[in-house]
Amino acid sequence: MIHVVAVITAKPGQRDKILEAYRDNRPAVLAEEGCIEYTATVDAAGMPASKGTFGPDTFVVVEKWATLAALQAHAAAPHMAAYGAKTKEWTESRVIHVLEPA
């Protein structure tokens, strides 16, 4: 199994626009062969800010894929290219961590 932690930082005030595009694209991703999980997450409400807090402009997508090949196919999928083009102007940075069980 392949795990992905994608840290997406929006330009100030643009996170909701990116999350809306994410939600629109999510069904297509979940339908991909090998997709086990694809979930957007934000800082938990009610927790005090800390060094680990992402803040109001960042969200983290937690993904699980059956194989590396499935993840690679996901990255090349037309709906992901369309999502990237749609959100490009709203995005400050993307840091993608691809992990496997230890």
Automatic annotation (TrEMBL):
GO MF annotation list: monooxygenase activity
Domain ABM: 2-99
UniProt cross-references to Pfam families, sorted A to Z: ABM (PF03992)
This protein's record includes keyword Transcription: no
Keyword Cell inner membrane in record: no
InterPro entries assigned to the protein according to its UniProt record, in alphabetical order: ABM_dom (IPR007138), AI-2_Isomerase_LsrG (IPR050744), Dimeric_a/b-barrel (IPR011008)
UniProt keyword annotations, A-Z: Monooxygenase, Oxidoreductase
Gene3D superfamilies assigned: 3.30.70.100
Protein name per Swiss-Prot or TrEMBL: Antibiotic biosynthesis monooxygenase family protein
